[in-house]
User: Which sequence fits this backbone?
């Protein structure tokens, strides 16, 4: 079945690739200057890389990443790529597709392609290594090979972020299937997985999905020092969730960058607030991490939370946006509306600023 997945570039895959590659663009610009002060290398790792091209010729994520490196001299001198796929045909086709890329010889570090099952051997290897700054992408067909230990083995090191595709349909079914209990325990942790099984047995579908994703987010952030952001994919008819793309970082800047990327790739925006969802049918089916609250709510939230305080726009954004769907533009729009309705004062005031703007350093006093 996994082989048939690559017959054509499905819309979900196009959006998924766009999110990963756009984050990669900004991540490399941020991380490269720091990496160059060390040994100059950064990495992209994909352990379920696929064959490189869909049958219709569309480039999948690995080749798009390599094309970006070929086109950027600094990146060509610094990027180390490790690709793996357990299906021999996929790994062989990927290697051939890489070799055919125009300019591939410009890369200082030739991409490595392996053909191994993803299991404890990768986890143990990464746990023992001190990784260079790495963007780690995990896109399994189902859930086999995806585990907390695998994610943690990469995130432990400086400059490392993780993006993984989470097959909600298969995980949802797997939680009640004793045959795959060990896989579910590896994904959520044994204690949280057992608690989740008990809690969701009588839940309606929407509540069940929320419980599953929130339990995963808590498992990924046990010490409260990481940032987790989900992006939901609906089935073609828009009726049910198929997948979540989950981003995990130790750095708030990475979180903000990915939030902006997911904002732009969302199917719908209510009052400029993104759904954080790709839904071909354009249906709003609920919330995750409060990720469906419109701009009107933001105005009231800000006035309530910051009553009597004076802060800059940037400080307001940084204190308030974690776990919510709002990007910087939403906060600026909200503050402009609050200023116009005289619910806040701003310095410099609207009359002293360029028309329609609200800069990061504008000081806001909430009444």
Assistant:
């Amino acid at each position: 079945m996994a082989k048939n997945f690559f017959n054509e570039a499905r819309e979900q895959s196009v959006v998924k690739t766009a999110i990963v590659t756009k984050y990669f663009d900004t991540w490399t610009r941020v991380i490269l200057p720091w990496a160059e002060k060390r040994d100059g290398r950064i990495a992209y790792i994909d352990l379920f890389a696929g064959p490189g091209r869909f049958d219709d010729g569309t480039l999948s994520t690995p080749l798009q990443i390599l094309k970006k490196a070929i086109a950027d001299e600094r990146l060509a001198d610094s990027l180390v790529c490790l690709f793996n796929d357990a299906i021999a045909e996929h790994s062989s086709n990927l290697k051939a597709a890489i070799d055919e890329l125009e300019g591939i010889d410009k890369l200082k570090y030739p991409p490595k392609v392996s053909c191994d099952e993803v299991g404890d051997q990768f986890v143990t290897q990464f746990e023992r290594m001190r990784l260079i700054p790495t963007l780690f992408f995990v896109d399994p067909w189902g859930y086999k090979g995806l585990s907390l230990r695998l994610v943690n083995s990469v995130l432990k090191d400086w400059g490392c972020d993780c993006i993984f595709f989470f097959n909600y349909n298969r995980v949802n079914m797997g939680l009640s299937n004793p045959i795959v209990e060990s896989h579910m325990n590896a994904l959520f942790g044994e204690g949280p997985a057992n608690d989740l099984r008990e809690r969701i047995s009588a839940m309606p579908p929407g509540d069940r999905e929320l419980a599953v994703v929130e339990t995963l987010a808590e498992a990924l952030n046990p010490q409260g020092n990481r940032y987790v952001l989900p992006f939901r994919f609906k089935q073609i008819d828009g009726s049910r969730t198929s997948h979540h793309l989950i981003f995990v970082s130790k750095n708030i800047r990475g979180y903000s960058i990915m939030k902006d990327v997911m904002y732009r790739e969302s199917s719908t925006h209510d009052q400029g607030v993104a759904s954080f969802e790709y839904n071909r049918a354009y249906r709003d089916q609920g919330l995750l991490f409060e990720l469906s609250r419109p701009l009107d709510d933001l105005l009231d939230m800000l006035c309530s939370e910051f009553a009597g305080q004076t802060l800059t726009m940037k400080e307001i954004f940084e204190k308030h946006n974690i776990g919510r769907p709002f990007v910087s533009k939403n906060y600026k729009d909200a503050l402009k509306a609050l200023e116009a309705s005289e619910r806040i004062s701003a310095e410099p005031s609207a009359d002293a600023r360029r028309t329609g703007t609200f800069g990061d350093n504008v000081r806001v006093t909430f009444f």
